[in-house]
Amino acid sequence: MVATFSMSIWWQGVMDGFVWACSRVYGPNDECERGERMGGSRSTLTSAMEKFLEFIEDLNLIDLPLEGGRYTWLSGTDQPLMSRIDGALVSHDRG
C-alpha cells in the first residue's frame, strides 16, 4: 500500500503463518514542515507533526534508539542545524 507519505508491506510466515507489517514513513521536504531539529528558528510543532505524534501514540509504537547520537543529518555550517531524518518505529503487539 502506498500513501502520500508512507509505504506499507505485509508478510506472512510460511512455517508459522505469523503476519507482520513493515511501513516506511517519510515527511514533506518543505523546510517549514520538517521536525525533530536542533538549531534554526523553528520551535513549534506543525499540524502534520502533531498528527504523526498522535499516530505513534495511538498505535503504541516504540521509537528505536539511534546508535551514536540523536540526529542523523548535520548542515556542516559554523552554527550547524541538526535533524533526525531517519528512524525506526516498532510495535510489540501481535494484533
From TrEMBL:
InterPro entries: Endo/exonu/phosph_ase_sf (IPR036691). The keyword Signal applies. Keywords: Signal. Residues 1-21 form the signal peptide. This is Uncharacterized protein. The lineage of its organism: Eukaryota, Viridiplantae, Streptophyta, Embryophyta, Tracheophyta.
